[in-house]
Amino acid sequence: MAEKQAKAQRFELPGPLYAGLRFVHALRPIFLGLGKLESALMRGRLDRTPIDRPIYICGVPRCGTTVTLDMLSAHPSVATHRYADMLMPYAPYTWTWLSTQLLKIVPDKPQERIHQDGIQVTKLSPEGTEEMLWLEFFKGLHSDQVSCVLTEEHTKPAFDRFYADAIKKLLLARGRGRYLSKANENVTRLLYLHRLFPDARFLLFIRHPVHHVASLRKTDQLFNSLAKQDARVGKMTAITGHFEFGPSKHWAKVGDRIGDITRLYQEGEQARAWAMHWSDTYDLVSAQLKAHPSLAACTLTVRYEDLCRNPGPTIDRILDHCELESTAFADVRAGYQKKLVEPTYYRPDYRPDELEQIDAITMATRAAYGYTHGAADVLSDARKVAEPA
Predict the structure, then answer these.
(1) Helix crossing, 270-291 with 258-266: angle to 10°?
(2) Which domains does the chain possess?
(3) Which of 8, 45, 151, 318 would staple 191 via disulfide (CB 3.0–4.6 Å)?
(4) Helix (H, G, I), strand (E, B) or coil at 302
(5) Ramachandran quadrant class, 241 (left: phi over 0; alpha: psi -120 to 50; beta: rest)
(6) Where are the alpha helices (DSSP H) in the chain?
(7) Residue 187 DSSP code
(8) Distance separating alpha carbons of residues 181 and 130, to the nearest angstrom
(9) Residue 305 and residue 384: Cα distance in Å, rounded?
(10) What whole-number distance in Å separates Cα of residue 102 and Cα of residue 213?
(11) What is the pLDDT of residue 142?
């Protein structure tokens, strides 16, 4: 039996936020032009602003990327996008000033994010919004007809200029020296980003597939339930470039099994579909890291289980890899060392044949990332998901 259907809770999508998203989305060419004008007016400052070792958090969703973004965003050296930036990712310098003024007028109370996973957010909470920029320059990235993988051989000079300028403007607006991004989709663009920024630091997150697939399926069911309550949910996720879950879901074409994945999902065999997507994505990255030693040297693989079960040393590994100074981060580290735990708000509930299918589909892939225990063993003894690194 599939895990219990995610309980449909009432979700209130703020009307002004939705209206603003629709307005900006409808006038994207104009706002892109304003972003270019902003860059032109700031050209002297931008040319003097380096992009120093940007940090990219990525992986298949539901593996600890958000909590890591939240944690690292507290470091005094880094600048991130925020929830408020969803309205205007194209002109970050001007929008930072304007949104700051608006937030002085509009109340901003913490609330649980749409995923209903216990994470409280405000308009100033860190969030990944750069996908909206990628979509403007690379059409069809979320199509099952065209590969979404971008390598060092792909070129898009207009995007490269706009993207680099956007990062520099965000750094200037925040008064910080390092860019921090969480964009799960960037897991298929590591080589492209490595070409743009050879000194970038990549944090690749992964989770044992038995729990990862369960979380992916549960979240997808939740988004579909919320969209039935409010059709604007699906439209909002599409506008902001979040195609992972719900009615606007599109399977990104990573490997050659996209047809099988789509068919299985439509037939209700969601566990198999997600397991194939999991394997194809992490097989892609594994192959790239083996073929490109310079990319491998810039990439740290972080297992979600290690982050939750051995948080202190895992946080230290992350800080060391990203070359982030640890002294000023000591209080934040201590706080997250106490709060990082594995989720308890749901339990996977698979049919026996689904466990066998997940095992068979993911066996080779998970072994390459140090997951030596099968699905049944993991469910019977959660301590065996992975040995602490």
Answers:
(1) 160
(2) 15-384 (3.40.50.300)
(3) 151
(4) strand
(5) left
(6) 15-26, 28-41, 43-47, 65-72, 92-103, 131-137, 157-174, 190-196, 209-229, 232-239, 258-266, 270-291, 293-297, 304-309, 311-322, 330-339, 352-368, 375-380
(7) G
(8) 8
(9) 10
(10) 40
(11) 83
Residue 317 tokens read as: 């590994």
Mean pLDDT by 10 residues, the chain (389 residues): 43 79 94 97 98 98 94 97 92 94 75 68 86 92 87 95 98 97 96 98 97 93 90 89 88 91 95 96 98 98 96 98 97 95 78 92 95 79 38
Instruction: Print the SS3 string covering 61-94.
Output: CCCCHHHHHHHHCCCCCEECCEHHHHHCCCCHHH
Which residue bears the tokens 């060419």?
29
Enter the tokens of residue 327.
């002294």
Q: Which amino acid is at 205?
A: F
Chain length of the chain:
389
d(CA 171, CA 168): 5
